[in-house]
Each structure stands twice: as structure tokens, then as C-alpha cells.
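Researcher: For the annotation table, I need C-alpha cells for ABC transporter ATP-binding protein. Please keep the output clean. Sequence:
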Amino acid sequence: MSNAAPLLDVQDVSKIYGGSGGLFGFGLGSQVRALDGVALTVGEREIVGLVGESGSGKSTLGRLVVGLERPTSGHIILNEAARPGPPRGKARSLGPQIIFQNAVAALNPRRTVKDAILEPAVVHGLLTGPADAFVHRLMDSVGLPASLKDRRPHELSGGQCQRVVIARALAASPKLLVCDEPVSALDVSIQAQVLNLFLDLYDETGCSYLFISHDLPVVERLSHRIAIMYLGRIVESAPTKALFAKPLHPYTEALIASVPDIEQQRRTFHPVSGEIPSPLSPPSGCHFHPRCPHAMDVCRVVQPPLLAIEPGHFSACHLNTPPAFAAAGASGPLG
Ligand SMILES: Nc1ncnc2c1ncn2[C@@H]1O[C@H](COP(=O)(O)OP(=O)(O)OP(=O)(O)O)[C@@H](O)[C@H]1O
């Protein structure tokens, strides 16, 4: 990556749902802090994987990045190239696009493949030539035969529907694609094909991805860099190789250990113990401390900051924080 401004710069972003005054304005509504001070960047031509258990805030961040929702606080900055707006050569961009897990639900059941792919281009005046050629080119780029162009979603397989959704996103010439669990609804064999498609499209288009998944091996395969989320916070981020070679946060360690590696017998299967706590009442201090085998007293009271422990490798854990910071809280193992 160059030193140029990142394509996407998420700065100290929080998102709180509910609790806006509660019943009759008496503050009775309960609040969910879906995101809590999240900072993340995605560079040009970079694939960043975002991993975490269900409820950690991954989809919320994805929706904020593409502007479907607004943060409660903090800033989401899109570099000029990623922003919607003025023409870039012949193709105009609609800004970041998002691909959801459920492709069938994302498509209008009454519209054909051709109409689905054309719609954003027509509505936003992006069509630069004959419609058929435009549709065929996009269908070809996602590996769909042109003969399917008049089919409706119920006449396609799940994998084909996901390809239509990807083609429709590409029609907007995005520089940044947010992929929210784009393969988890597909059969394993189809998953591999669609993941290969994402890699091919990366080579062809130079598009950056924020690739959201709860599946660490999927993200490992695609990403240059991985960020690990836990209950609304990023707890570790690093280049993919560094993260697997030397995970610094106990949650990351537990996630990696939970991945069975049948072929190489390298990793044994130990699911992360305990349930992810309710985001309605997250644990104090480090949110992970009730499940952490290394928890100390300080972890219960002080939130560890996300610090660069090695160049490009960030971790939010008192095991990694400098002694001066840790001394601010008590030390010693939790009972
Ligand atoms: N519109 C909403 N209103 C209220 N709470 C919400 C809303 N959207 C998300 N949440 C809550 O925010 C938290 C984070 O949800 P989010 O869907 O972002 O997590 P996730 O990591 O993507 O989970 P999953 O992998 O299950 O999709 C959850 O507790 C969820 O219930």
C-alpha cells in the first residue's frame, strides 16, 4: 500500500440503536452499542477482511460504509476515488456498493437478470453504450452465460443469483465493494467458485473489498489484511500472514484455534468457550474478559486501547499494553 490517503477511513465510529428517549421520553428504551469507537482503513486495491462472531457489529459497519445508515458519532471518510459523483473517464461511479448474503432476497422476483443488472446503470445515467452489450459484458465478467438474461430469480440457482447481484454491483463501477457474508448462504462447492470469482474480479477491476464474514478461513483466503471484531470493537488487525503467524489477542487466538484443519492436522478444534455476551449489557473493561483464559483484574475495569504492537499489527489487549498503562488498573489474575 502507498502512503496515499486510504480509499476508506473509518474514524472512531460508534453506532447506538434504540434508547432514544424510551417510552414517553423517559429514557426507558434499551440501547445497543453496535459499534464502539471503531477505526479501520481500506486502501486502494486492498482486500480487508472483517471477522467476528454473530452480533459483533460487522454488518452495521458495512451499512454505515455504504451510507445506508449514519454513525451516531465519528466519521466515515471516502477518498475522492471512492465517492459517488463526477465522471471518471467514461464510467461514472455510484460510490461504494454492498453485496448481501441473501442474493435471492436482494433481487426483485419479477425482474429479469437483464433488468436487474441494467437498473442502477439506467437510473443513474451510467449507461455508456448499447444496453445488451453492457449486460453481456457484466454477465460474462461474473461467469453467467448470456442465455440466462431473460430468466427471473426463481429460475436461477443460489450461486447464479449471487453472480447477478455481483454483476449489478459492478455496473456501478465501484472502487470499493462491501461484501457482507456473500457466500455463506451458498453450498460449499459453489462458495469456492464465488470466492474465486471475487479474486478474479479483484485482478480485473482493481476494486477494493471490505469482506465481512464470520468464517476465518474464507477471509484468510481472500484478504491482504484482517480486522477482528468483538462486541462492537476492533480487538486486533494485521496483515493476514502476520495475524495467523502470531495472533496477539486471546480472542483471535481462540478463533484461529477453533478452525479445524483436517488436511494438515495443524490446528485442533476448540470452539471459543462461552457465549458472546449481550450487547445490551456488555462486560466492563475489556469486553472479552469473561471468556479470556488470561484475564487479569485490570481487564475487568480498563478498556485496552488498540495499539500498534508491531508495524501494521494492532491489538487491544492488556497483555500487549505497555506497563505504564496497565499500571493504571489493578493487576493479577481474575478469580
Ligand atoms: N436496526 C437495528 N436496531 C437495533 N439493533 C440492531 C439493529 N441492527 C443491528 N442491531 C444490533 O447491533 C448488534 C450488531 O449487529 P450486526 O448485525 O451488525 O452484527 P454482525 O456481526 O453483523 O452479526 P451477524 O454475523 O449475525 O450478521 C446486534 O446486537 C444487533 O442486534
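Researcher: And a one-line annotation?
Model: Residues 8-96+174-326 form a domain with the Rossmann fold fold (CATH 3.40.50.300).
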